[in-house]
Amino acid sequence: MVVKIQKSNEETTYNFTRKAGRSIIEHRPVFSPDGESLVVIVEKIARVYNVQTGDCVRVLETETNIDELIGICFDKEGFNVYGCSRDGLLITWTWEKGAVLREFKLPNLRKRQVCTFDLIDSERCLITSVNVYGGPTQIFLGSFSLKTNLQSPMEFTSQQIPFFGIVRVSLGWCNGEHYAAIINGSKFVYIQHMAKPHIHAFHSNYNEFRVLDVSCHQHQSAVAIVDTLGRATIVRGDLFNYKAVAREVLHWHHLPAFAVKFSTQGSYLITGGMEKVLVKWTIGNLADKANQKEFIPRLPGLIKFVAVSNSHIAVTLSNNSIVIANAQMRVHCTILECGGLSAAARAGAALLYHRRTACLLMGGRPGHLQLYSTASDKVLCNLDITDTNSIPTESKHDLIPLETEVTCAATSGDGNWLVTSEYRNDGVTYPEEKLKFWVSQLSKGAVPFTLVTCVNLSHGGCNVVAISLNTLGTFCVTAGTDQKFRIWKQDKATRQKREWSCLTACYYSSGVAQFQSNSIFNDIKKFNISSFTSGPEVLPYMKEVGRRGDLILRLMNIHKEAAVGRPIVSANADPENEMGGVAISQDGSLIAAWFGCKLTLWDTHLCNLRTTLSHPALRPKGVHVQFGIADAAHYLVCTTENCLAVFSLLSLTVKWLVNIKPTCLVSDPFSNKMAVVTTQNDVFVFTPHSSTPILRQNGLVDPRSGVINICTFAKAVKKNDVLLYFMRNNSEIYCLEPERTTDDRLEVISSKNVPTSNFSALLAEQQLSEVRPLQAAELHELNNVALGNNAIKQFLSAAPHMVPPVNLISTAFLEHISGQETTEEPEETEAAMEVDPQSSDDEEEVVSNGADETKTQLWTANYDEVNEKKLRRILKLPVLHKDAAASIFGVKSN
Fold first, then answer.
1. Cystine design at 470: which of 422, 475, 585, 606 (Cβ 3.0–4.6 Å)?
2. Rounded CA gap, 22 and 47, in Å?
């Protein structure tokens, strides 16, 4: 419950908060016992989502500050929820209310970090941990009691399991006893008895391929594993004896499979991997449907984890989303969070504020832009920019996916136009490069933009590095790695469809950089066709473990990849004239473009070079450039790797310069404010007029955990306030906003006033009603005299020019305000009244005089007198002769 508090006249303070971009795919999700909810670990908390709608219904939080949750489990009865943090804090929640019952630190961890957490039964849990502070990289297994933290844990030290960066654990039953199956990314599957530490075993995968995930059958003695070859193998029998088991191999996946899970009853097996296809295998006693497969194809990301219930399947994908499907393999819900950028998209991540929808446009899944609502904290839609199918690689040599990505985007100031560029270069075929123009269509459908113009090879196959649009969206400039910038303009010849066309291309050097930037433009393509008769090719990542830069670990953490998988750099590139940022002036007459360390100014209409601005501090090359807005339109602000400089367009000289290391520069399209962010995550909001910042925030976040690489202005509630959104690590969204004023800030009521029942929770602390009890003072009649006096005061207090003419005012009202009193005439009766003979005659005379008295008129218009006054005023003018004027108008002059 909240209440408003009064407004105070304090200075504006700013808050820096994290809005979105949290990872929801780091750990396997868990279904509730009833199957109606899905619990997802999100860093330090656990969110509970409704399976049918995909909405977050509540959050499970801890009372003690932790670094990260690593596991969530339900007890057998489903009354409590257990979780464990990476530093070994065990938390117990009630499932119905989400209240914390108990928190205690697990003993004897010896400075180890917890990797996995699983419940053995209602009294014990299994913890795996690794020593990250030095010493042997070995996986330690321990069983801890849930009832008390005084009991010493049971450690399983008889089996040595090395650590290679991957740990997966699954619990099952064998011969009526609990066991745990552990894999570490090698070719072995380790089996450990839960009650007897000395009983253990291990099984080796066929052909020594690395095992990537494991799942135990809940009713039979069986284990399912998936490997780097794409096979799913089911091991049945006495798992504690490697000679008493049988294997069944299911092979559909061509690339490595990362997830495997038995169904609740064990009649089906669900697998998934790099093909972005979920496969449901029919196994067990269903002889009529043996080896039958069902698919969910074209998922938007690599499959990382799979969770099952009696009626649903939850699939965790690498694009930071969770897809929920029913038992019939039909997707009906998606839990989506900001982030999930691919490796190629991170190189040119975009963050734009769309004013028409009040949402943020940012990169998302491959080939898409996300529309994120800052008000509802949800991703409204995914805008498909490339409109291409996601096809996995056919070669096993390089598994890092390389798809057509959105490398650059820009919107107009009014939000009507969106311009995007997409690029793909695999180093073998000719590069794919397109420039697309989108128009806003909020009133026509759910998709906010529609494609108007698509330009193939707009820069000859070279990647676009910068895009700039004017405020009205009628003029566009794009810069590419071909060391040219091109000017685009709308063609309004047709009313129904506004198309864009290129006016010209401008360059500073010889203009042949597109043939020198990369040898792929001139090389003859040669394809290596492998023989179909040869056996399967064995690559190092399939069998070898512990390699530096392990490809399997990179694929499992592809959502954290910080660079393009296959960067292609030519030795012939010329950094002296390398293109940087471009900008258009407010009036559209000038274009500013970086060519290496030279900042050039071009005429928009003539498309010729006007001047070149240079300074020793601008070396080695420029990065960003922005024109001033409003009263700062005669300034040009630019950044390099080591400084921020402001040029005056009137004198073509540097007005002021600051030695900082900026990462991004952005301007507000509707004010003269600009913002710059440094490598130390310092934010400065300034105007080009002065080097003294308007707003300064130092060290918003620790730069060791990530640097803010892009920001954008948003529309603030008040005109002079600043509202900035930042992107860190290419997925985390932060906001620098004014602290809510006391006029609209909501204050949480203390716990003393918390309602004691569900009904009282709907009632406010203070209640007002328009129905009041009957009071004696309200029974009296209205005082007409008081009301009349109030109306007269309002009438007399008005300005003279607002008062109506006197001849239009009621005579009775004029008599009332003049103070004249009138007597009421006596009512006429049918019969004459009898007169007392003893009465006095004076009373009759007084009554008759009062009734027969005539009313005096307050004011009468005398037009003759007014006309005479006007004529006398005219006579005083020296225009006519005095006697002539008197004879003409018939007035005697004095």
1. 475
2. 12
What is the value of pTM for the model shown?
A: 0.77
Separation between Cα atoms, residue 160 and residue 892, nearest integer Å: 135
Token duo for residue 33: 């016992």
d(CA 259, CA 281): 13
**577: nearest Cα among 602, 601, 597, 600:** 597
Q: Could you tell me if 179 and 239 are in contact, meaning their C-beta atoms sit under 8 angstroms apart?
A: yes
Local structure of residue 535 (DSSP, 8 states): -
Which has the closest alpha carbon to 679: 628, 714, 643?
643
- List 173's β-bridge partners, or say none: 178
Local structure of residue 367 (DSSP, 8 states): T
Find, among 89, 94, 90, the residue nearest to 77 by Cα.
94
CATH topology of domain 347-392+401-519+551-565: Methylamine Dehydrogenase; Chain H (2.130.10)
Radius of gyration of the chain (CA): 41
Domain ranges of the chain: 347-392+401-519+551-565, 861-894
d(CA 226, CA 657): 59
Cis peptide before 620 (omega within 30 of 0): yes
The count of residues in the chain is: 894
End-to-end C-alpha distance for the chain, whole angstroms = 88
CB 701 within 8 A of CB 734: yes
The residue assigned the tokens 């003393």 is 752
What are the tens digits of pLDDT across the range 575-625? 778 889 999 999 889 999 999 899 999 999 888 999 999 899 898 899 999
**Alpha carbon distance 396, 255 (integer Å):** 7
The residues facing 235 across adjacent strands are 223, 247
Residue type at 881?
A: H
Contact at 8 Å (CB) between 757 and 11?
no
